[in-house]
Amino acid sequence: MAMSEKETEGEKTFAELFEAHPETPRRKFSPGDNVSGTVVKISKDTIFVDLGGKSEGFVDTQEFVDKEGTILVKEGQKIDLKVASLKDGIHLSKGMKVQGTEALEMLRDAQRNQIPVEGRVSGVKKGGLDIDISGIRAFCPLSQIDIQFCDKPEEHVGKKHLFRIIEYKERGRNIVVSRRALLQEEQEKKMNEVLASLQPGLELEGKITRVADFGVFVDLGGIEGMVHVSEISHARVNRPSEVLKQGQTVKVKVIKVETDKADRKRIALSIKALEPDSWEKGLGFQEGEILSGKVSRLADFGAFVEVAPGVDGLVHISEISHDRISHPGAVLHEGDVVEVLVREIDHEKRRVSLSIKDAAIKKRMVEEGEKSGKARLEVGQILQGIVDNIKPYGLFIRLPQLGMDVRGLLPTEELADPKGDVKKKFPKGKEIQVEIVSIDQEGRIRLSEKSMVDREDREDYEKFLKKEEKTGNLGTLGDILKDIKI
């Protein structure tokens, strides 16, 4: 019975099937070419690979066998290889692993075509290591075994690596190889892949390779970027080594990618950009509080004090001391720890106004209040206050003896002497004695300075009357008035 065309095609060999498609051009290969193909047949010693274009190559099965003897590929699987030799067909290899009588010839081809070969480190000798490449001895200088300096070459003994033959002399009796060359090529490949994807805003993970005084270098996978000391943390960092160490894994954000004059890529990274700052998390303090901070910077107009990680408040030169000073450096130095009172917080502009002299005043008042017992919030109470804010209608006075955040209003008409420039007479931070004259339903406190003067006048007059009653002589109107305070 005659076989159908389809059945007949099923009996054709692999080569015959290729010949059945004359429109497919035959591809040309050279030793060292990188090729991809499909596994079409696996035997005990050889794996046959379809390279396309009517071309078939073969690779030793041992290159795809694990320690247990299991073959790691299967028919139909795509694999990447290199052309090792064109003698007796297209001989392929994962890493140009040579063996048998063809070894020297293949090594020479590998050297000419820059094809990697597999070798085992058999020992250590002066200046380098002995390498066994399928029974042929080669030498790897110590500087060529790794990218970094190798201070423990004995750790490589017994290990298998891929090498590049950099010298082939005396018909194979003098062979010098390098592993470093391949590692550098792999590193450059990864670097180009990383560079292609790098752009500002990208978040990555890398390992710190070096710590310097100005920042740290981070390996991003074949290419290094730098985190400047100012980009390590929102908190002030004087030396990177205080918070980071070599070998540590960190998460970074790309903030800039530039090309220098030598056409090298410079990558600026940030660690703190991935963390919320103190303004976003919450400062942890409010106006009226006394804080301890470190002087971070001095300027002609004042001193900056760090009161939270990454938050520097300004102490104006007029708020440093009660005495007049020409420059903040006359009484302060960078690194000094000082106590400051938070006068104002501007969340929109992210500014904090501080006072050193107000902190001293408030602290003294609180201590005096604690010694004499905390003052009561009641009408008629006379307290020592601090001018906190000035408005057209009056002054807001802080009352530390009642609490850290208690304030009252001293209307302009309640001043003992409302005439003149109120701002000049009552600058912020000035101490003033006031009396509580009313407390409304919402707890707002109304203060008065005039009421105390009036009370003193009444008390002086009453004392005078009692004195005259005892003597029985009230005297003239002039006598009465001369002792009264105006």
List how many beta strands DSSP finds. Answer: 25
Report how far the terminal alpha carbons are from each other: 142 Å
Radius of gyration computed on alpha carbons: 44 Å
Helix content: 10-25%
Structural class: alpha+beta
Count of individual helical segments: 9
Strand order of the largest sheet: 1-2-3-5-4
Characterization of the model:
- The structure is a single chain.
- By secondary structure, this protein is of the alpha+beta class.
- It is built from nine helices and 25 strands.
- The protein has helices at 5-10, 14-19, 103-113, 180-197, 278-281, 356-372, 422-425, 450-471, 477-482, and strands at residues 34-42, 46-52, 55-60, 78-85, 90-93, 117-125, 128-133, 136-141, 160-169, 174-178, 203-212, 215-219, 224-228, 249-259, 265-270, 290-299, 302-308, 311-316, 337-346, 351-355, 382-391, 394-398, 407-411, 431-439, 445-448.
- A five-stranded mixed beta barrel has the order 1-2-3-5-4. A five-stranded antiparallel β-sheet has the order 8-7-6-9-10. A five-stranded mixed beta barrel has the order 11-12-13-15-14.
- A hairpin with a 2-residue loop joins strand 6 and strand 7 (128-133).
- The longest helix is centred in the last third of the chain and has 22 residues, at 450-471.
- The protein is rod-shaped, with a radius of gyration of 44 Å.
